[in-house]
Amino acid sequence: MGDHMYPSKVLKDGPKPGRKFSTLDEMILDADGFAGVFPEYKYEIVKRLEGLGHLCAMTRDGANDAPALARANVGIAVEGATDAARGAADIVLTEPGLSTIVHAIRQSRIVFQRMRNYSIYTCAVTIRIVVGFVVMAFAFKFAFPPFMVLVIALLNDGTIMTLSLDRVLPSNQPDHWDLTEIFTYAFGYGICLALSTSVLFAVIFHSSFFEDRFGVDRIKEANKHSGSPNLAFLHMIIYLQVAIISQALIFVTRSHSWFFMERPSAALMGAFLIAQLISSLIAAYGNWGFTDVQGINATWI
Fold it and tell me: Is tRNA-binding among the key words of this record (predicted)?
């Protein structure tokens, strides 16, 4: 704190003629503090600072400080404050000192980052599901079973619930919602994943690449006999691809740089591995005639 201290009477009488300050506002801006102020003076200081376009915060504990606490942009009631001060404040400290404010700001920015990651991920997955299956429906007459979309959604929901416990890096600057950024990232991720599924389907359906390179089932021959792209085991192949990359996308959306540069929480990693295991077991043993899917061999998995 500096040494530009003034007595409280200047707040009532104003600066003396001939001094370097022509108005009380100029004196308040220059002051490092005022001595012996009454509650109404505190309110006046806050009011004038806000009138000059400044954001004003105040910390107090007494009942007579409630008007100034309520007037400030951020009113902070310190530990042991009266009920009136607590009721008027925006932040109530429960421990001595101001270090709790730093902790609160850090935690709030962590929560904000988790919400941002969740928003980008959910929007991206929605776009990839809608765009990907619409493209395949119109381009290849491929009808993906709705029940399998529900299975994908349930596994994804189980994974993203752990985002509330994820390890994230708080920003160094105050956060704000940038919907343009969120939807831009989500649209980019969603379109890329939708295209990857469409390209995979086209390669499987119109070529023998996987049969020749990996010795998997002869899909082209099965298609010739059936005359339709809606084969039960082809449904399962697409399900597995969509499930795997949709769940893996969460590691991309949560990172500000390369996904492998920011270590996820154990809860998120565990949920991802469990979801991958369940998806793989469904792909291997899910012979469900009611939804037209058939288990695939280990080569595809």
Answer: no
Residues 221 and 228: their CA atoms lie apart, in Å, by 11
Which helix H or strand E contains 77, and what residues bound it?
strand 74-77
pLDDT in tens, the chain (301 residues): 556 777 767 777 666 665 676 777 777 877 777 788 888 888 888 888 888 888 888 888 888 888 889 999 989 888 888 888 888 888 888 888 778 888 888 989 999 999 999 999 999 999 999 999 998 888 888 888 889 999 999 998 888 888 888 888 888 888 888 889 999 999 999 999 999 998 888 888 777 776 666 666 656 555 545 556 777 878 888 999 999 998 899 898 888 777 778 888 899 899 999 999 999 999 888 888 888 888 776 666 6
**Which residues of the chain are in CATH 1.20.1110.10 domains?**
106-291
**Distance, CA of 43 to CA of 35 (rounded, Å):** 15
pTM over 0.70: yes
Question: How would you list the strands of the sheet with 74-77, edge to edge?
Answer: 57-60, 74-77, 91-92
What is the CATH number assigned to the segment(s) 5-100?
3.40.50.1000
Range 106-291 has CATH code 3.40.190.10: no
**Could you tell me where in the chain the CATH 3.40.50.1000 domains are found?**
5-100
